[in-house]
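mind reviewing both lines:
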Amino acid sequence: MSRVAVPGILKIAFKLLVNDRGKFAALLVGILFAVFLMIMMTSMFAGILKRSSATVLNVGARVWIMDPAVNNVASSIPMPDYVLDAARSIPGVKYAVPLYSSVALVKLHGGTYQAATVIGLDDASLYGRPELLQGNIQDIYGENAFLVVKDAEFSKLGNPGLGSEFEINDHRGKIVGIAHVATSGLFGIPTLYTTYSRAVSYIPSMRFTAAFILVEPKSAADIPRIQQAVARLGYQALTEAQFVQKVSDFYIYQTGLGTNVLLMTIISFAVGLSISAQTFYTFILENLEKFGALKAIGAKGRELILMILFQATFTALTAYGLGVGLATLLMTVARLRLPDYAAEITYLNLALAFVMVLIIAAISSLIGIRKVIRIEPFDIFRG
Protein backbone atom coordinates (compact mmCIF):
# COMPACT_ATOMS: atom_id res chain seq x y z
CA MET A 1 0.00 0.00 0.00
CA SER A 2 1.26 3.48 -0.78
CA ARG A 3 2.05 5.84 1.98
CA VAL A 4 -0.49 8.57 2.89
CA ALA A 5 0.76 12.10 2.09
CA VAL A 6 1.69 14.31 5.05
CA PRO A 7 -0.85 17.10 4.27
CA GLY A 8 -3.57 14.47 4.08
CA ILE A 9 -2.49 12.94 7.40
CA LEU A 10 -2.66 16.33 9.10
CA LYS A 11 -6.07 17.03 7.60
CA ILE A 12 -7.35 13.70 8.90
CA ALA A 13 -5.80 14.41 12.31
CA PHE A 14 -7.55 17.78 12.46
CA LYS A 15 -10.93 16.28 11.56
CA LEU A 16 -10.53 13.52 14.13
CA LEU A 17 -9.68 16.12 16.76
CA VAL A 18 -12.54 18.56 16.21
CA ASN A 19 -15.17 16.01 15.14
CA ASP A 20 -15.99 15.18 18.77
CA ARG A 21 -16.63 18.69 20.04
CA GLY A 22 -17.16 17.57 23.61
CA LYS A 23 -13.75 15.91 23.90
CA PHE A 24 -12.06 18.76 22.05
CA ALA A 25 -13.67 21.29 24.38
CA ALA A 26 -12.57 19.25 27.40
CA LEU A 27 -8.98 19.23 26.11
CA LEU A 28 -9.09 22.99 25.56
CA VAL A 29 -10.61 23.73 28.96
CA GLY A 30 -8.00 21.71 30.85
CA ILE A 31 -5.02 23.50 29.29
CA LEU A 32 -6.83 26.87 29.16
CA PHE A 33 -7.47 26.69 32.90
CA ALA A 34 -3.81 25.90 33.57
CA VAL A 35 -2.60 28.76 31.35
CA PHE A 36 -5.08 31.15 32.91
CA LEU A 37 -3.91 30.37 36.44
CA MET A 38 -0.22 30.49 35.51
CA ILE A 39 -0.59 33.84 33.77
CA MET A 40 -2.68 35.31 36.57
CA MET A 41 -0.32 34.20 39.35
CA THR A 42 2.94 35.16 37.64
CA SER A 43 1.48 38.47 36.42
CA MET A 44 0.33 39.34 39.92
CA PHE A 45 3.82 38.51 41.17
CA ALA A 46 5.43 40.68 38.48
CA GLY A 47 3.10 43.57 39.34
CA ILE A 48 3.89 43.30 43.05
CA LEU A 49 7.63 43.25 42.37
CA LYS A 50 7.36 46.34 40.18
CA ARG A 51 5.36 48.23 42.79
CA SER A 52 7.82 47.24 45.50
CA SER A 53 10.42 49.31 43.61
CA ALA A 54 8.04 52.21 42.89
CA THR A 55 10.19 54.84 44.63
CA VAL A 56 13.30 53.74 42.74
CA LEU A 57 11.53 53.83 39.39
CA ASN A 58 9.72 57.11 40.05
CA VAL A 59 12.78 59.02 41.28
CA GLY A 60 14.86 57.76 38.36
CA ALA A 61 18.35 58.28 39.81
CA ARG A 62 21.13 56.49 37.96
CA VAL A 63 23.08 55.53 41.11
CA TRP A 64 21.77 55.04 44.64
CA ILE A 65 24.04 55.07 47.69
CA MET A 66 22.74 53.26 50.77
CA ASP A 67 23.69 51.28 53.82
CA PRO A 68 24.65 47.71 52.80
CA ALA A 69 21.95 46.32 55.12
CA VAL A 70 19.15 47.95 53.13
CA ASN A 71 17.22 45.34 51.18
CA ASN A 72 14.14 47.33 50.13
CA VAL A 73 13.05 50.94 49.85
CA ALA A 74 10.79 50.82 52.91
CA SER A 75 13.61 49.78 55.26
CA SER A 76 16.07 52.58 54.58
CA ILE A 77 18.86 53.21 57.09
CA PRO A 78 19.85 56.91 57.47
CA MET A 79 23.48 57.75 56.69
CA PRO A 80 25.74 60.39 58.25
CA ASP A 81 26.37 63.66 56.43
CA TYR A 82 29.99 62.85 55.66
CA VAL A 83 28.85 60.16 53.18
CA LEU A 84 27.18 62.86 51.08
CA ASP A 85 30.31 65.03 51.19
CA ALA A 86 32.49 62.07 50.29
CA ALA A 87 30.21 61.10 47.40
CA ARG A 88 30.42 64.58 45.95
CA SER A 89 34.20 64.42 45.98
CA ILE A 90 34.48 61.10 44.13
CA PRO A 91 36.00 61.50 40.64
CA GLY A 92 33.34 60.90 37.99
CA VAL A 93 30.43 62.23 40.09
CA LYS A 94 28.59 65.04 38.34
CA TYR A 95 26.49 65.78 41.43
CA ALA A 96 25.08 63.98 44.47
CA VAL A 97 22.00 64.91 46.50
CA PRO A 98 20.27 63.46 49.58
CA LEU A 99 16.82 61.89 49.54
CA TYR A 100 14.55 61.64 52.57
CA SER A 101 12.06 58.79 52.76
CA SER A 102 9.82 57.94 55.68
CA VAL A 103 6.24 57.18 56.69
CA ALA A 104 4.27 59.73 58.71
CA LEU A 105 0.73 60.04 60.07
CA VAL A 106 -1.33 62.70 58.35
CA LYS A 107 -4.32 64.20 60.17
CA LEU A 108 -7.03 65.00 57.66
CA HIS A 109 -9.62 67.76 57.78
CA GLY A 110 -12.27 65.49 59.31
CA GLY A 111 -9.99 64.48 62.18
CA THR A 112 -9.09 61.04 60.82
CA TYR A 113 -5.50 59.86 60.45
CA GLN A 114 -3.88 58.32 57.41
CA ALA A 115 -0.36 56.97 57.01
CA ALA A 116 1.54 58.46 54.07
CA THR A 117 4.97 58.06 52.54
CA VAL A 118 6.84 61.35 52.64
CA ILE A 119 9.62 61.88 50.10
CA GLY A 120 11.96 64.80 50.79
CA LEU A 121 13.69 66.15 47.68
CA ASP A 122 16.95 68.07 47.65
CA ASP A 123 16.07 71.74 48.21
CA ALA A 124 18.39 73.11 45.57
CA SER A 125 17.75 70.75 42.66
CA LEU A 126 14.49 68.93 43.51
CA TYR A 127 16.16 65.95 41.86
CA GLY A 128 13.68 63.09 41.44
CA ARG A 129 10.59 65.33 41.45
CA PRO A 130 7.42 63.88 39.94
CA GLU A 131 5.56 65.20 36.91
CA LEU A 132 2.90 67.73 37.91
CA LEU A 133 -0.68 67.48 36.70
CA GLN A 134 -1.72 70.65 38.52
CA GLY A 135 0.24 73.43 40.21
CA ASN A 136 3.70 74.92 39.81
CA ILE A 137 6.81 73.11 41.03
CA GLN A 138 8.23 76.39 42.39
CA ASP A 139 5.36 76.50 44.89
CA ILE A 140 6.99 73.65 46.79
CA TYR A 141 9.29 76.26 48.32
CA GLY A 142 6.28 78.02 49.85
CA GLU A 143 5.38 77.72 53.50
CA ASN A 144 4.11 74.24 54.52
CA ALA A 145 4.03 73.14 50.88
CA PHE A 146 3.56 69.52 49.78
CA LEU A 147 2.89 67.74 46.50
CA VAL A 148 0.45 64.82 46.51
CA VAL A 149 0.63 61.91 44.08
CA LYS A 150 -2.61 61.16 42.29
CA ASP A 151 -2.60 57.37 42.16
CA ALA A 152 -4.74 54.51 43.43
CA GLU A 153 -4.25 55.70 47.03
CA PHE A 154 -5.12 59.35 46.34
CA SER A 155 -8.64 59.01 47.72
CA LYS A 156 -7.32 57.95 51.13
CA LEU A 157 -6.28 61.57 51.67
CA GLY A 158 -9.81 62.74 50.88
CA ASN A 159 -9.14 63.52 47.19
CA PRO A 160 -7.35 66.79 48.04
CA GLY A 161 -7.18 69.65 45.59
CA LEU A 162 -4.84 72.62 45.34
CA GLY A 163 -4.95 74.52 48.61
CA SER A 164 -6.20 71.58 50.71
CA GLU A 165 -4.73 71.54 54.19
CA PHE A 166 -3.81 68.82 56.69
CA GLU A 167 -1.62 68.28 59.74
CA ILE A 168 1.52 66.21 59.92
CA ASN A 169 3.14 65.82 63.35
CA ASP A 170 1.37 68.98 64.60
CA HIS A 171 2.64 70.95 61.60
CA ARG A 172 0.36 72.49 59.03
CA GLY A 173 0.63 71.13 55.51
CA LYS A 174 -0.79 72.55 52.30
CA ILE A 175 -1.20 70.90 48.90
CA VAL A 176 0.41 73.08 46.22
CA GLY A 177 0.64 70.50 43.46
CA ILE A 178 -0.95 67.28 42.26
CA ALA A 179 1.56 64.93 40.69
CA HIS A 180 1.66 61.84 38.53
CA VAL A 181 4.19 59.01 38.84
CA ALA A 182 4.94 56.03 36.64
CA THR A 183 4.32 53.36 39.29
CA SER A 184 2.07 53.33 42.34
CA GLY A 185 3.41 52.06 45.65
CA LEU A 186 2.95 48.56 46.99
CA PHE A 187 1.82 49.08 50.56
CA GLY A 188 -1.49 50.84 49.98
CA ILE A 189 -0.57 54.25 51.37
CA PRO A 190 -0.56 57.62 49.57
CA THR A 191 2.61 59.55 48.77
CA LEU A 192 3.57 63.16 49.53
CA TYR A 193 6.58 65.07 48.22
CA THR A 194 8.19 68.07 49.86
CA THR A 195 11.63 69.60 50.27
CA TYR A 196 14.33 67.73 52.16
CA SER A 197 14.67 70.41 54.83
CA ARG A 198 10.92 70.54 55.47
CA ALA A 199 10.66 66.76 55.70
CA VAL A 200 13.51 66.64 58.23
CA SER A 201 12.02 69.41 60.36
CA TYR A 202 8.41 68.12 60.26
CA ILE A 203 9.00 64.42 60.87
CA PRO A 204 10.84 62.98 63.88
CA SER A 205 14.08 61.41 62.74
CA MET A 206 17.18 59.76 64.09
CA ARG A 207 20.48 61.57 64.34
CA PHE A 208 21.10 61.01 60.63
CA THR A 209 18.44 61.85 58.06
CA ALA A 210 19.59 60.95 54.53
CA ALA A 211 17.83 57.69 53.62
CA PHE A 212 19.59 57.53 50.25
CA ILE A 213 22.09 59.58 48.29
CA LEU A 214 21.30 60.02 44.63
CA VAL A 215 24.27 60.28 42.32
CA GLU A 216 24.44 61.44 38.73
CA PRO A 217 27.69 60.17 37.16
CA LYS A 218 29.46 62.09 34.44
CA SER A 219 29.32 59.01 32.22
CA ALA A 220 28.35 55.36 32.42
CA ALA A 221 32.03 54.42 32.46
CA ASP A 222 32.43 56.25 35.79
CA ILE A 223 29.86 54.10 37.60
CA PRO A 224 32.20 51.18 38.52
CA ARG A 225 34.75 53.66 39.90
CA ILE A 226 32.07 55.37 41.97
CA GLN A 227 30.85 52.02 43.31
CA GLN A 228 34.35 51.03 44.36
CA ALA A 229 34.95 54.36 46.11
CA VAL A 230 31.65 54.09 47.99
CA ALA A 231 32.45 50.51 49.01
CA ARG A 232 35.70 51.75 50.59
CA LEU A 233 33.57 54.06 52.73
CA GLY A 234 31.63 51.05 54.01
CA TYR A 235 28.50 51.77 52.01
CA GLN A 236 26.94 50.45 48.82
CA ALA A 237 26.30 52.15 45.48
CA LEU A 238 23.84 50.49 43.11
CA THR A 239 22.54 51.44 39.72
CA GLU A 240 18.78 51.75 39.32
CA ALA A 241 18.56 48.29 37.75
CA GLN A 242 20.72 46.73 40.48
CA PHE A 243 18.62 48.32 43.23
CA VAL A 244 15.38 47.13 41.62
CA GLN A 245 16.87 43.64 41.39
CA LYS A 246 17.94 43.75 45.04
CA VAL A 247 14.41 44.70 46.10
CA SER A 248 12.95 41.94 43.92
CA ASP A 249 15.35 39.38 45.38
CA PHE A 250 14.26 40.38 48.87
CA TYR A 251 10.59 39.76 48.14
CA ILE A 252 11.28 36.57 46.19
CA TYR A 253 13.72 34.87 48.56
CA GLN A 254 13.27 36.48 51.97
CA THR A 255 9.49 36.63 52.17
CA GLY A 256 6.81 34.01 51.57
CA LEU A 257 5.65 35.74 48.41
CA GLY A 258 7.98 33.94 46.00
CA THR A 259 7.32 30.51 47.51
CA ASN A 260 3.54 30.94 47.45
CA VAL A 261 3.50 32.06 43.81
CA LEU A 262 5.83 29.20 42.84
CA LEU A 263 3.55 26.64 44.53
CA MET A 264 0.45 28.04 42.85
CA THR A 265 2.19 27.96 39.46
CA ILE A 266 3.24 24.33 39.97
CA ILE A 267 -0.29 23.40 41.07
CA SER A 268 -1.73 25.12 37.98
CA PHE A 269 0.70 23.20 35.78
CA ALA A 270 -0.15 19.89 37.49
CA VAL A 271 -3.90 20.47 37.13
CA GLY A 272 -3.62 21.30 33.44
CA LEU A 273 -1.31 18.34 32.82
CA SER A 274 -3.53 15.83 34.60
CA ILE A 275 -6.73 17.01 32.89
CA SER A 276 -5.27 17.25 29.41
CA ALA A 277 -3.28 13.99 29.62
CA GLN A 278 -6.29 12.02 30.85
CA THR A 279 -8.65 13.55 28.28
CA PHE A 280 -6.17 13.08 25.44
CA TYR A 281 -5.62 9.44 26.42
CA THR A 282 -9.39 8.88 26.39
CA PHE A 283 -9.54 10.57 22.98
CA ILE A 284 -6.86 8.18 21.65
CA LEU A 285 -8.68 5.13 23.01
CA GLU A 286 -11.95 6.18 21.41
CA ASN A 287 -10.24 6.69 18.04
CA LEU A 288 -7.99 3.63 18.21
CA GLU A 289 -9.91 1.86 15.44
CA LYS A 290 -9.44 4.82 13.11
CA PHE A 291 -5.69 4.87 13.75
CA GLY A 292 -5.60 1.13 13.08
CA ALA A 293 -7.49 1.60 9.83
CA LEU A 294 -5.01 4.27 8.72
CA LYS A 295 -2.16 1.89 9.50
CA ALA A 296 -3.89 -0.82 7.48
CA ILE A 297 -4.13 1.38 4.36
CA GLY A 298 -0.44 2.23 4.48
CA ALA A 299 0.16 4.93 7.08
CA LYS A 300 3.54 4.44 8.71
CA GLY A 301 4.20 4.63 12.43
CA ARG A 302 5.98 7.99 12.09
CA GLU A 303 2.95 9.41 10.27
CA LEU A 304 0.65 8.34 13.08
CA ILE A 305 3.08 9.92 15.54
CA LEU A 306 2.97 13.10 13.46
CA MET A 307 -0.83 13.06 13.70
CA ILE A 308 -0.77 12.81 17.48
CA LEU A 309 1.89 15.51 17.81
CA PHE A 310 -0.15 17.78 15.56
CA GLN A 311 -3.32 17.18 17.56
CA ALA A 312 -1.65 17.78 20.92
CA THR A 313 0.24 20.86 19.69
CA PHE A 314 -2.79 22.39 17.98
CA THR A 315 -4.89 21.91 21.11
CA ALA A 316 -2.17 23.27 23.41
CA LEU A 317 -1.48 26.38 21.32
CA THR A 318 -5.19 27.12 20.87
CA ALA A 319 -5.77 26.78 24.61
CA TYR A 320 -2.68 28.91 25.27
CA GLY A 321 -4.03 31.75 23.15
CA LEU A 322 -7.46 31.53 24.75
CA GLY A 323 -5.95 31.40 28.25
CA VAL A 324 -3.78 34.45 27.66
CA GLY A 325 -6.72 36.31 26.15
CA LEU A 326 -8.98 35.45 29.09
CA ALA A 327 -6.33 36.49 31.62
CA THR A 328 -5.71 39.76 29.78
CA LEU A 329 -9.43 40.52 29.65
CA LEU A 330 -9.88 39.82 33.35
CA MET A 331 -6.87 42.00 34.27
CA THR A 332 -8.17 44.84 32.15
CA VAL A 333 -11.57 44.70 33.83
CA ALA A 334 -9.92 44.40 37.27
CA ARG A 335 -7.80 47.52 36.65
CA LEU A 336 -10.91 49.48 35.71
CA ARG A 337 -12.75 48.37 38.84
CA LEU A 338 -9.89 48.01 41.32
CA PRO A 339 -7.30 50.81 41.17
CA ASP A 340 -5.01 48.91 43.57
CA TYR A 341 -4.82 45.85 41.30
CA ALA A 342 -1.13 45.26 40.63
CA ALA A 343 -0.96 42.43 38.08
CA GLU A 344 1.11 43.03 34.97
CA ILE A 345 1.74 40.67 32.07
CA THR A 346 5.38 40.51 30.98
CA TYR A 347 7.20 38.67 28.21
CA LEU A 348 8.75 36.42 30.87
CA ASN A 349 5.29 35.41 32.14
CA LEU A 350 4.14 34.60 28.62
CA ALA A 351 7.31 32.64 27.87
CA LEU A 352 7.05 30.64 31.11
CA ALA A 353 3.42 29.71 30.43
CA PHE A 354 4.29 28.84 26.81
CA VAL A 355 7.09 26.48 27.87
CA MET A 356 4.81 24.78 30.38
CA VAL A 357 2.10 24.38 27.74
CA LEU A 358 4.64 22.75 25.42
CA ILE A 359 5.58 20.35 28.22
CA ILE A 360 1.90 19.51 28.73
CA ALA A 361 1.53 18.88 24.98
CA ALA A 362 4.68 16.71 24.90
CA ILE A 363 3.61 14.52 27.83
CA SER A 364 0.08 14.18 26.48
CA SER A 365 1.50 13.22 23.07
CA LEU A 366 3.81 10.64 24.62
CA ILE A 367 0.91 8.93 26.35
CA GLY A 368 -1.02 8.74 23.07
CA ILE A 369 1.97 7.69 20.97
CA ARG A 370 2.78 4.73 23.21
CA LYS A 371 -0.74 3.41 22.66
CA VAL A 372 -0.99 4.05 18.92
CA ILE A 373 2.37 2.60 17.81
CA ARG A 374 1.39 -0.75 19.35
CA ILE A 375 -1.73 -1.02 17.21
CA GLU A 376 -1.85 -3.94 14.82
CA PRO A 377 -4.40 -3.66 11.96
CA PHE A 378 -5.17 -7.35 12.40
CA ASP A 379 -6.43 -6.71 15.94
CA ILE A 380 -8.67 -3.87 14.79
CA PHE A 381 -10.31 -5.79 11.95
CA ARG A 382 -10.58 -8.94 14.02
CA GLY A 383 -12.52 -6.95 16.65
Observations:
- The chain has two domains: 6-52+256-382, 80-234.
